[in-house]
Amino acid sequence: MIIDPLFYAMAVPSVILIGLSKGGLTGLGVLAVPLMAIVASPMQAAAVLMPILLILDLVAVWTYRKSFDKITLIITIPSSIIGIIIGAVLVSQVNPDWIRVIIGFIAISFTISHWRTAKDRGSRGHSIFRGTVWGSITGFTSFVTLTGAPPYQMYLLPLKLDQRTYAGTFMIFFWMNNILKIIPFMMLGEMTRSTITTSMILFPISLMFTFLGIWIVRKLPTKIFYEIIYILLFLVSIKLIYDGFTNIIV
């Protein structure tokens, strides 16, 4: 078990963000690994968070089991498998910081475009091509940089689903995505008895905030929910760019 107090000073806010994200405020979880990476290596941070994510996924999937968009999942889950396989093969050969920067800039352009044309743009229909592209990119980035939410949101948000269907689709996709990452992630040797014990200590905090997130999503009107998600995506994108360039320069 990790006993460094400074580690827990960063870990507790991280699991709070993950809990809120799994409750339906999607995107907040992206900030968890960078926070913990202040006091631990990104892979150690991911090793601590992975068991928590897997258990919270079950809570989220059960909560939203009747609210999801089947077509989106049929299109994006198979393509995410391709992305995960590519990520597992190339994880030691690519610079994750450049991936963060690229995804950050794409997501910022996406949100700015939405805000400029929101009044003129209706719901965008499904597309096998766009779903396959963004599903693959999501699988790749979620494995290499643990930041799969922004690319997935770029396919999901324009569909303008109601907030529970949006949240349910997002949760079920990343539940499957995380399950698919277990074996290749364990092969990297980062998950140990110490990291798993630490995960179990932090888990009750994340569970409490998951239920808080579920409650918030139920109370929010759809329009306000989407405004919050777009703002979170924009802020997360800035964080990705900042983290990427900071690591590249250093």
What's a quick, concise take on this entry?
78% of the residues lie in helices and 0% in strands. The chain is mainly alpha-helical.
Helix content bin: over 70%
- SSE string: HHHHHHHHHH
Instruction: Please state the overall shape, judged from the principal axes of the Cα atoms.
Output: globular
Quickly count the helices.
10
Q: Say how many strands there are.
A: 0
Average pLDDT figure = 82
Radius of gyration: 17 Å
Biggest β-sheet description: none
Q: Uncertain regions: pLDDT < 50 for 5+ in a row?
A: none
Between the first and last Cα atoms, what is the distance in angstroms? 30 Å
Key features of this structure:
250 residues, mainly alpha, 78% helix
Architecture overview:
- The protein has 250 residues and is mostly helical.
- The protein has one domain.
- It is built from ten helices and no strands.
- The chain has helices at 5-23, 32-36, 42-63, 70-90, 96-117, 128-144, 149-156, 163-187, 193-219, 222-249.
- Helix 1 (5-23) packs parallel to helix 9 (193-219).
How is the secondary structure organized here?
Layout: H1 5-23, H2 32-36, H3 42-63, H4 70-90, H5 96-117, H6 128-144, H7 149-156, H8 163-187, H9 193-219, H10 222-249
Helix pairs in contact: 1-3, 1-9, 3-8, 3-9, 4-6, 4-8, 5-10, 6-7
